[in-house]
Amino acid sequence: MEADSVWHYQFRIIMLGDSTVGKSSLLKRYAEGVFLESTSQTVGVDFYVHFLEVKPGLCIKLQFWDTAGQERFRSVTRSYYRNSAGGVLMFDLTNRASFESIRKWHQEVMETIKPYHMVFVLVGHKSDLEAERKVGRKEAEKLASSLEAKYIETSAKTSQNVEEAFQILTSEIYEALKSGKMRPNEQWDGVKCKLPPDAQPKVQEEGRKKKCSC
Protein backbone atom coordinates (compact mmCIF):
# COMPACT_ATOMS: atom_id res chain seq x y z
CA MET A 1 0.00 0.00 0.00
CA GLU A 2 1.90 3.00 -1.29
CA ALA A 3 -0.58 5.82 -0.79
CA ASP A 4 -0.34 7.36 2.63
CA SER A 5 -4.02 8.25 2.50
CA VAL A 6 -5.35 4.68 2.71
CA TRP A 7 -4.76 4.08 6.42
CA HIS A 8 -7.46 4.25 9.09
CA TYR A 9 -5.25 4.14 12.19
CA GLN A 10 -1.61 4.98 12.77
CA PHE A 11 0.25 3.17 15.55
CA ARG A 12 3.65 4.35 16.74
CA ILE A 13 5.91 1.50 17.82
CA ILE A 14 9.26 1.78 19.56
CA MET A 15 12.06 -0.80 19.37
CA LEU A 16 13.70 -1.40 22.74
CA GLY A 17 16.72 -3.44 23.74
CA ASP A 18 20.49 -3.46 24.14
CA SER A 19 22.85 -2.56 21.35
CA THR A 20 23.56 -5.32 18.75
CA VAL A 21 20.48 -7.46 19.53
CA GLY A 22 19.33 -6.90 15.95
CA LYS A 23 16.56 -4.29 16.19
CA SER A 24 17.53 -2.59 12.92
CA SER A 25 18.00 -5.90 11.11
CA LEU A 26 14.55 -7.09 12.15
CA LEU A 27 12.93 -3.84 11.03
CA LYS A 28 14.73 -3.82 7.69
CA ARG A 29 13.60 -7.38 7.03
CA TYR A 30 10.01 -6.50 7.90
CA ALA A 31 9.70 -3.06 6.32
CA GLU A 32 12.01 -3.47 3.32
CA GLY A 33 12.27 -7.24 2.87
CA VAL A 34 16.07 -7.24 2.99
CA PHE A 35 18.66 -8.74 5.31
CA LEU A 36 22.02 -7.09 5.84
CA GLU A 37 24.68 -9.37 7.30
CA SER A 38 26.08 -6.42 9.20
CA THR A 39 24.50 -3.06 9.97
CA SER A 40 25.98 0.04 11.53
CA GLN A 41 24.86 0.84 15.03
CA THR A 42 21.86 3.13 15.27
CA VAL A 43 22.75 6.66 16.34
CA GLY A 44 19.83 8.23 18.19
CA VAL A 45 16.64 7.12 16.42
CA ASP A 46 15.86 5.79 12.92
CA PHE A 47 12.38 5.71 11.38
CA TYR A 48 10.54 3.08 9.33
CA VAL A 49 6.98 2.89 8.00
CA HIS A 50 4.95 -0.19 7.07
CA PHE A 51 1.27 -0.75 6.27
CA LEU A 52 -0.64 -3.72 7.65
CA GLU A 53 -4.25 -4.80 7.21
CA VAL A 54 -5.09 -5.93 10.73
CA LYS A 55 -8.46 -7.22 9.51
CA PRO A 56 -10.25 -7.06 6.14
CA GLY A 57 -10.84 -3.43 5.21
CA LEU A 58 -8.94 -1.93 8.17
CA CYS A 59 -5.50 -0.61 7.31
CA ILE A 60 -2.97 0.30 9.99
CA LYS A 61 0.01 2.54 9.32
CA LEU A 62 2.86 1.37 11.53
CA GLN A 63 5.41 4.06 12.30
CA PHE A 64 8.52 2.53 13.86
CA TRP A 65 11.09 4.26 16.01
CA ASP A 66 14.31 2.25 16.04
CA THR A 67 16.20 3.41 19.11
CA ALA A 68 19.89 3.17 19.87
CA GLY A 69 20.73 0.71 22.62
CA GLN A 70 23.84 2.48 23.86
CA GLU A 71 23.58 4.27 27.17
CA ARG A 72 24.94 7.55 25.78
CA PHE A 73 21.85 7.90 23.57
CA ARG A 74 19.36 7.02 26.31
CA SER A 75 18.33 10.62 26.98
CA VAL A 76 17.38 10.94 23.31
CA THR A 77 15.43 7.68 23.11
CA ARG A 78 13.54 8.32 26.37
CA SER A 79 11.81 11.28 24.75
CA TYR A 80 10.07 8.89 22.33
CA TYR A 81 8.60 6.54 24.94
CA ARG A 82 5.60 8.63 25.85
CA ASN A 83 4.21 8.86 22.31
CA SER A 84 4.40 5.14 21.54
CA ALA A 85 1.42 2.76 21.53
CA GLY A 86 3.52 -0.39 21.24
CA GLY A 87 6.94 -1.53 22.35
CA VAL A 88 9.11 -4.36 21.00
CA LEU A 89 11.26 -5.56 23.91
CA MET A 90 14.06 -7.37 22.12
CA PHE A 91 16.98 -9.51 23.22
CA ASP A 92 19.55 -11.72 21.51
CA LEU A 93 19.00 -15.43 22.23
CA THR A 94 22.77 -15.92 22.15
CA ASN A 95 23.47 -13.05 24.56
CA ARG A 96 22.37 -13.70 28.14
CA ALA A 97 23.11 -10.14 29.27
CA SER A 98 20.69 -8.68 26.71
CA PHE A 99 17.93 -10.90 28.12
CA GLU A 100 18.68 -9.79 31.66
CA SER A 101 18.39 -6.14 30.56
CA ILE A 102 14.78 -6.52 29.46
CA ARG A 103 13.25 -5.74 32.86
CA LYS A 104 15.34 -2.57 33.02
CA TRP A 105 14.07 -1.43 29.62
CA HIS A 106 10.48 -2.23 30.56
CA GLN A 107 10.70 -0.44 33.90
CA GLU A 108 12.26 2.64 32.32
CA VAL A 109 9.42 2.87 29.80
CA MET A 110 6.69 2.29 32.37
CA GLU A 111 8.06 5.08 34.57
CA THR A 112 8.01 7.46 31.62
CA ILE A 113 4.69 6.83 29.87
CA LYS A 114 2.22 7.42 32.72
CA PRO A 115 -0.71 7.96 32.45
CA TYR A 116 -0.69 6.42 28.98
CA HIS A 117 -0.86 2.71 28.17
CA MET A 118 1.63 0.76 26.04
CA VAL A 119 1.36 -2.76 24.63
CA PHE A 120 4.51 -4.90 24.58
CA VAL A 121 5.74 -7.97 22.74
CA LEU A 122 8.89 -9.76 23.90
CA VAL A 123 11.10 -10.90 21.02
CA GLY A 124 13.95 -13.39 21.28
CA HIS A 125 16.03 -12.67 18.18
CA LYS A 126 18.61 -14.66 16.17
CA SER A 127 16.73 -17.95 16.49
CA ASP A 128 18.76 -19.28 13.56
CA LEU A 129 21.76 -19.56 15.91
CA GLU A 130 20.23 -22.42 17.92
CA ALA A 131 23.60 -23.96 18.78
CA GLU A 132 24.65 -20.72 20.48
CA ARG A 133 21.41 -20.23 22.44
CA LYS A 134 21.87 -18.91 25.99
CA VAL A 135 18.21 -18.34 26.90
CA GLY A 136 15.58 -21.10 27.01
CA ARG A 137 12.09 -20.64 25.60
CA LYS A 138 10.32 -21.44 28.89
CA GLU A 139 12.39 -18.90 30.77
CA ALA A 140 11.63 -16.24 28.16
CA GLU A 141 7.92 -17.10 28.19
CA LYS A 142 7.89 -16.72 31.98
CA LEU A 143 9.44 -13.26 31.71
CA ALA A 144 6.94 -12.26 29.02
CA SER A 145 4.05 -13.39 31.20
CA SER A 146 5.31 -11.32 34.13
CA LEU A 147 5.42 -8.27 31.83
CA GLU A 148 1.93 -9.03 30.44
CA ALA A 149 3.42 -9.48 26.97
CA LYS A 150 3.31 -12.13 24.26
CA TYR A 151 6.56 -13.93 23.44
CA ILE A 152 7.92 -14.92 20.03
CA GLU A 153 11.32 -15.96 18.63
CA THR A 154 12.50 -14.45 15.36
CA SER A 155 15.34 -14.43 12.85
CA ALA A 156 15.92 -11.55 10.45
CA LYS A 157 18.32 -13.81 8.53
CA THR A 158 15.79 -16.57 7.78
CA SER A 159 12.63 -14.43 8.12
CA GLN A 160 11.30 -16.79 10.80
CA ASN A 161 8.32 -15.19 12.59
CA VAL A 162 9.28 -11.68 11.48
CA GLU A 163 5.85 -10.79 10.12
CA GLU A 164 4.14 -12.72 12.92
CA ALA A 165 5.90 -10.67 15.62
CA PHE A 166 4.57 -7.38 14.29
CA GLN A 167 1.15 -8.83 13.52
CA ILE A 168 0.85 -9.91 17.15
CA LEU A 169 1.79 -6.46 18.44
CA THR A 170 -0.49 -4.64 16.00
CA SER A 171 -3.43 -6.87 16.88
CA GLU A 172 -2.81 -6.35 20.60
CA ILE A 173 -2.80 -2.57 20.17
CA TYR A 174 -6.03 -2.75 18.19
CA GLU A 175 -7.62 -4.88 20.93
CA ALA A 176 -6.52 -2.29 23.50
CA LEU A 177 -8.32 0.34 21.44
CA LYS A 178 -11.50 -1.72 21.28
CA SER A 179 -11.45 -2.37 25.02
CA GLY A 180 -10.89 1.29 25.84
CA LYS A 181 -7.41 0.86 27.36
CA MET A 182 -6.19 3.20 24.62
CA ARG A 183 -7.98 6.10 22.99
CA PRO A 184 -6.73 8.50 20.33
CA ASN A 185 -6.46 12.07 21.57
CA GLU A 186 -4.83 15.30 20.47
CA GLN A 187 -2.29 15.29 23.31
CA TRP A 188 -0.90 11.84 22.48
CA ASP A 189 0.69 10.67 19.22
CA GLY A 190 0.79 6.95 19.98
CA VAL A 191 -2.43 6.34 18.05
CA LYS A 192 -3.90 8.53 15.32
CA CYS A 193 -7.23 7.89 13.64
CA LYS A 194 -8.64 9.30 10.41
CA LEU A 195 -12.17 8.34 11.35
CA PRO A 196 -14.31 11.12 12.90
CA PRO A 197 -14.70 10.85 16.69
CA ASP A 198 -18.38 9.94 16.50
CA ALA A 199 -17.54 7.03 14.17
CA GLN A 200 -14.84 5.48 16.35
CA PRO A 201 -17.08 3.79 18.97
CA LYS A 202 -19.17 2.33 16.15
CA VAL A 203 -16.09 0.81 14.51
CA GLN A 204 -14.95 -0.57 17.86
CA GLU A 205 -18.35 -2.07 18.55
CA GLU A 206 -18.48 -3.71 15.13
CA GLY A 207 -14.98 -5.02 15.76
CA ARG A 208 -16.40 -7.08 18.65
CA LYS A 209 -18.85 -8.62 16.20
CA LYS A 210 -15.97 -9.37 13.83
CA LYS A 211 -17.33 -7.03 11.20
CA CYS A 212 -15.80 -3.99 9.56
CA SER A 213 -17.49 -0.92 8.11
CA CYS A 214 -14.32 0.65 6.71
From TrEMBL:
Membrane-crossing residues? none
Residues in a coiled coil are: none
Q: What keywords is this UniProt entry annotated with? A: GTP-binding, Nucleotide-binding
Q: Which SMART domains match?
A: ARF (SM00177), RAB (SM00175), RAN (SM00176), RAS (SM00173), RHO (SM00174)
In the record, what terms sit under GO molecular function? GTP binding; GTPase activity
Family annotation (Pfam families): Ras
Q: Region annotation Disordered: residue ranges?
A: 192-214
What does the sequence similarity comment in the record state about its family?
Belongs to the small GTPase superfamily. Rab family.
Classification via NCBIfam families: small_GTP (TIGR00231)
Please state what the protein is called.
Ras-related protein Rab-42
Query: Highest lineage ranks of the organism?
Result: Eukaryota, Metazoa, Chordata, Craniata, Vertebrata
